[in-house]
Amino acid sequence: MIRHQLPLIITFFTGMLLIITFFIPHKPFGDLEQRFLIWYSIISGFTVLLGLDSLVRYHLGKLKKEFNIHSFILILSLFLTLILGFYSWFRFKTPFALNSPFMFLYTYVIIPLQATMFALLAFFIASAAYRAFRARTFEATLLLIAATIVMLGRVPIGGYISKGIAYFISFLFKIPYEKISETQIFAIVSDWIMNIPQNAAKRGIFIGTALGGIAMSIRIILGIERTYITK
Amino acid sequence: MFLIIFLIFQNSYFQNIKGYDTPADEGGSITLEWKIKEEFLSDTNPIKFFEIYRKEKEKEFINVGFVLSQYNTYEDKGLIDGKDYYYQIWAIREKDTLKSEIIGPIYSKAQWFNTNRLNVLIITIILFVVFLYYIEKAKKGEKLFVRKIAGLDAIDDAVGRATEMGRPILFSFGLGVITDVVTIAALSILSKIAKKCAEYGTRLLIPNYDPIVMAAAQETVKEAYLEANRPDLYKESDITYLTSDQFGYAAGCDGIILREKPGAIFWQGYFFAESLILAETGHSVGAIQIAGTTAITQLPFFIAACDYTLIGEEMFAASCYLKPEPHMLGSLKGEDFLKAIILVIFVVSTLIATLAVIFKDFTFINNLFQFINNIFTVK
Amino acid sequence: MREFLTKLATIDRRIIYLLTFLVVCLPMLFKMIMPIRISEEVKRAFKEIDNLKPGSIVMISIDYDAASEPELQPMLIAILRHCFSKDIKVILLGQWALGLPLGEMALNQVAKEYNKKYGEDYVNLGYRPGYTALMVGIGKELRDFFPTDYKGIPIDSFPFMRKVRNYQQIDILVGLEAGATGDAWVQFAGARFNQKIILGTTGVVAPDMFPYLQAKQIVGLIGGLQGAAEYETLVKKAGSAILGMPAQSFVHLLIIIFIIVGNIGYFILRRKK
C-alpha cells in the first residue's frame, strides 16, 4: 500500500512546495528552486552511469553470443574516448585543450560525423517536400504557395527572380523599370508571412501546448495522472 | 515593509538619490536609485560608468561595484540583514568624477511574500479552482464531450497492421527527459501500445535517448504485459539505451529501422532537428507512422512525413482520451474553459491596445492598457 | 507524353538525392558569390553591438554543438570580428559542453586577426552544469558558478573581469542557439534581470524567436545561414556563410521545381482516375 502511495505523496508535497516557494522569497523558501535545480543537475549526471551500464551490458552480451563487428566497434570507441578524455584532462588540465588527443578526436571524428548527420536533412527535406507538398485541398495549396514564397524570400536568388518579375511587370503595364527594380517582392512577402500569420499560428499552438502542460502538471501533482508510477 | 531614505536637501550633482531595502526579496540586498542633474550631462564630457561605494559605521568606504552609464539603479547584495550601511555614488566621467552625498543608514530585510507576483498567485488559484470544479463535475456523472483525435484512434489500426505483416513496432520518446511533461504523456500512450502488443504477441522495440526514461519505459511495458497476462513475452533487451547525443541517437534509430523494418512507428515526445531524418527513414521502409510532439518547429516535418500527427496539447489529452475516466476528462474540460477565457482576454486586450494607439491622448484608455499589461507581466 | 508526366508524381528518391547533392556541391566548387539582402532583425542586432563604446562587455553563450556548426560558427566568427574591431571585451561561456571547443577555436582564430590577448580582451569561462540555475545564478553573482575560467585560472586575475559581478556589468548577451536554450535565456536573464539579448539561431529555430523580437524581449535576431551571411556582409568580411548562400539558393529553387513537377504529375494522375 505504502509503496503505491509514497511516490504520490512525494510528488504532491514537492510540487506544492515548489509552487509556494515561487511566492515566498524569505529563506529557506527563496532559494529552494535553485537548490532543487542543482540537485537535479547532480542526479542527472549520475544517470549517465545507468545508461553506460545498459549500453555496455547489452553489447557485451551480444559479443558473448556471437562476434558482432558493430558492437565491437561501439565498445572500442566508448573506452577509447574515455581513456583519451582522462589522459587529456590529466596532461593538459582540460580535455578541450586545442593540442590534446581528445580534441583531435573531437575535431576529426565527432565534428564531421555530427555535421554529416545534420547535412542529411537537406536530402530528406527535398524528398519529403516533393512527396508531401501536393495541392490536394485549398489549405494544402495555400501552404504550398506560402512555402514557395518563404523559400525564395530567404535566399539571394529570390532577389534575381524579383528583378525578373519587375521587368515583366514594367513591360506589361508600361511602368519605368527603375521604379520597381529594387522592390524585393519575395523578401517583403516572406517577411510578412514570418512576422504575422506564422507568428499568430505559432502563438496559438504555443498557448494550447502551455495550457496542456499546465493541466498535465496539475494532474501529476494531484495524483490523478499516474502513468510514471508502476503498480 | 522597506525602509526608504530620501535625500531632502539639494546635492550639487545628483538629484533624487534613494536607497532602500530591495522589495520582495530574500534579504541581504539594498537598492540604490539616482539621477544626474541635466546640467552635468554633456557630450564633451560624458559619463563612462557609475561606481558604488559602501561603508559600515566607523569604517572606510569600499568600492562594491559599478554599473554602465545607461543604468541609474544598483542592487547591492550579500549584505547582513539589520546592519546599517552608508552609500556614496561616483559618476566617472571622461575628464573628472562627480561624487554624490553620503546616504544612510539603510538596512536590508527579508520579505515573506513577493508582492510582484501577486498576479501570478491569483491566476494560479483560478487555474486550480477551474480544474477542480470540472473534475468534481465529471465525477458527479456529467457527460463531457471530447472530439475525435485521429492519431490516437489510429493506434489500434497501426498495431494491427504491424502484427499482420509480421513486423515489429518501434516506439521513440525522442530527446525528451523524464522531467519533460511531454515524456510522461508519451508514457501513457506507450502503456496502451504495449498492452496491445502483448495481446497480439507483437515485438515492441524502444531505443532510448535518456537512461531514466529507459527505466520508466521498461517498467511501463513490463506492467502492460503483466496486465495482458503475457509476462513471458516481455524482453528487457528490446528497450535499450542508445546514446545521449542527438544525431548519434538518430543514427542508431535509423539503423534499427533499416535492419528490423518495423510495420508501425510511434514518434511520441520531444524532438529537435533529427525528426525529419527519423520520419523519412521510417517512411522508406513502408511503416505507418504516428507522431506526437510539442516541439512546434518539428511539427511541419512530422506532418509532411508521417501518416498521423498529434499536435501539441493533443499529446497531453492522450491519457484522458485513451482512459476516459471522469477526473481525467474533467481536467481536459477545465483546460478548454481556460482557453476560452484566454481568447476573450486576447480580444478585449487587443481592442484596448489598438484604442490606446489611436487615442494616444486619452489617459483612461492608456491607463487601462497599462493595467492589463501589468496583470500579465511576471517579475 | 502523358506517361512521362504521370511518372513525375513518383520520381525515385535516389534521383532527388543525386540532384540535391549536385546542386549543393557545384556552386561551392565554383565559389559563386551572390549579393545578400540585409533583413531588419539582423540590422538591429548589428546596430546594437555597433553602438557599444570601446571597453564595453559582450557575453556570448555557445549553445550549439558540431551538428549546427556550419550555420552558427560563421555567426560567431562574424560577431567576434565585430566586437574585436570595436575593442569590445568578450566573455565566452556555454550551456552545451560539446560546443565550447568550437567557441575556443573561433576565439583563437579571430583574436589572432586583431591582435587580441587572452585575459585582457577576452575570456573563456567554459561550461558549468546548471542550465537555468546557472542563468539565474549569474544574475546574482557570476563567481558562484564561474570562480575560474575553463583552464582553472581565477577570473579575478583578469583585469576587465574584476568589475564584472552580474548582468548589470554586461552590455549585451549574445546567445547562439541550436535548441531551446534561447527561450531559457529570455525567460531568466531577460525577464528577471532585464539583460539585453541578441539571439543567433539555426534556420529551424529562428521562426520560434520572432515573437520575442516583436515583444522586444530580444533586441536582434540572426537566423540561419542567411542571417550569418547578412552579418558577414555588415561586418564587411566574407566567411563560409556568404560562400554557402548560392548553394542554399539553388537547393531552394530545386525543391520548388520538385514541388511543381510533383504537382503536375499528381494532377495528371488525378485526371486519369
Keywords:
heterotrimer; B: 379 residues; alpha/beta; Immunoglobulin-like; Rossmann fold; 11 helices; C: 273 residues; 6-stranded parallel beta sheet; 10 helices; 12% strand; elongated
Question: Could you describe the largest sheet of chain C, including whether it forms a barrel?
Answer: 6 strands, parallel
Q: Which shape of chain C, going by the Cα principal axes?
A: elongated
The percent of residues in helical segments of chain C reads 40-55%
User: Largest interface, counted with CB-CB under 8 A?
Assistant: A-B, 55 and 78 residues
Kindly state the percentage of residues in helix of chain A. over 70%
Would you give an account of this structure?
By secondary structure, chain A is mainly alpha-helical. Chain A has 9 helices and no strands. Chain A has a domain at 136-230. Chain A has helices at residues 2-21, 32-65, 69-92, 101-132, 138-153, 156-173, 177-180, 185-195, 197-221. In chain A, α2 (32-65) packs across α3 (69-92), α5 crosses α8 (185-195) and α8 (185-195) packs parallel to α9. The longest helix of chain A is centred in the N-terminal third of the chain and has 34 residues, at 32-65. Helix content of chain B is 43%, strand content 22%. Chain B has a 6-stranded parallel sheet, sandwiched between helices. In chain B, α1 runs antiparallel to α10 (326-358), α5 runs parallel beside α6 (275-284) and α10 (326-358) packs antiparallel against α11 (363-375). Chain C is elongated. Chains in contact: A-B, A-C, B-C. The interface between B and C is medium-sized, with 19 and 22 residues. Chain A: The chain crosses the membrane at residues 7-24, 36-55, 67-90, 102-130, 142-161, 204-222. Chain A: Keywords: Membrane, Transmembrane, Transmembrane helix. Chain C: The chain crosses the membrane at residues 15-34, 250-269.
Topology:
The complex is a heterotrimer of chains A (231), B (379) and C (273).
Chain A: H1 2-21, H2 32-65, H3 69-92, H4 101-132, H5 138-153, H6 156-173, H7 177-180, H8 185-195, H9 197-221
Helix pairs in contact in A: 2-3, 5-8, 8-9
Chain B: E1 4-6, E2 14-21, E3 30-36, E4 47-55, E5 62-68, E6 73-76, E7 85-93, E8 97-99, E9 103-106, H1 118-139, H2 150-165, E10 169-174, H3 181-200, E11 204-208, H4 211-227, E12 239-241, H5 246-260, E13 264-270, H6 275-284, E14 288-293, H7 299-305, E15 308-311, H8 313-316, H9 318-322, H10 326-358, H11 363-375
Parallel strand pairs in B: 10-11, 10-13, 11-12, 13-14, 14-15
Antiparallel strand pairs in B: 1-2, 2-3, 3-6, 4-5, 4-7, 7-8, 7-9
Chain C: H1 2-7, H2 13-29, H3 40-50, E1 57-63, H4 69-85, E2 89-94, H5 100-113, E3 122-127, H6 132-140, E4 172-177, H7 181-193, E5 197-201, H8 206-214, E6 220-223, H9 224-235, H10 240-272
Parallel strand pairs in C: 1-2, 1-4, 2-3, 4-5, 5-6
Keywords (chain A): Membrane, Transmembrane, Transmembrane helix
Transmembrane segments (chain A): 7-24, 36-55, 67-90, 102-130, 142-161, 204-222
Keywords (chain C): Membrane, Transmembrane, Transmembrane helix
